[in-house]
Amino acid sequence: MSEENKNEETVQKVDVVEEKDEITKLKDTILLQKEQLEDQEDRLKRLMAEFDNFKKRSSKEREGLYNSLISDIVTSLLPVIDNLEKAVSVKTEDEAYKQGVELVLKQFKEVLTANGVQEIEAVGIPFDPEVHEAVGMVTDETLGEKIIKEEYRKGYKIGSKVIRHSMVVVAN
């Protein structure tokens, strides 16, 4: 072999080695970029999950604040409703006056219902300390044990939150 062929063969070998080095460098660069991309995707997924949790938490807080405000307002109006109910139950000779009071009471109750306020059932159902407040006990053979016989004051709730407990008399 001639000197020229040897040089050419050496140059080719050097070119192949350089190409292999370059391919190795490119592979390393691709692996590094792939790792960086996976890391960024992971961070993006975590950030999206955190944002979703934030939205849910904010929504719950807003709803809780709204219900709290409504319950504060309703609590201050409940004595007015109690007095209207007493006015309706009183005997009067003026039927037009009585009907007017009944209409005002009905309108008040419709506004409460429209805002998610519900009356707590009492008479004839079992006593539940979560929603009822016992102020007396009587013996009544016609009713079962711990059945509410009488209601002194109506109770109200918004959703599952009790605004005011019912004051009741429990049988047996």
Write the layout of secondary structure elements.
Blueprint: H1 3-89, H2 95-114, E1 117-119, E2 132-138, E3 147-153, E4 156-158, E5 161-164, E6 166-171
Parallel strand pairs: 2-6
Antiparallel strand pairs: 1-4, 3-6, 4-5
Beta percentage is 15-25%
Poorly predicted regions: none
How many distinct beta strands? 6
Structural class determined from secondary elements: alpha+beta
CATH topology of the largest domain: Hemagglutinin Ectodomain, Chain B
Quickly name the level 1 CATH class of the largest domain: Alpha Beta
Helix fraction by DSSP (H/I, runs of at least 4): 55-70%
Please provide the ordered H/E string of secondary-structure elements: HHEEEEEE
Query: Major sheet: order of its strands?
Result: 1-4-5
Apparent shape: rod-shaped
Mean pLDDT: 91
Give the termini distance in whole angstroms.
Answer: 121 Å
Number of domains: 2
Q: Please outline the major beta sheet.
A: 3 strands, antiparallel
Give the CATH architecture of the largest domain: Alpha-Beta Complex
**CA-based gyration radius:** 39 Å
Number of helix segments? Answer: 2
Keywords:
Hemagglutinin Ectodomain, Chain B; Nucleotide Exchange Factor Grpe, Chain A, domain 2; alpha+beta; 3-stranded mixed beta sheet; 3-stranded antiparallel beta sheet
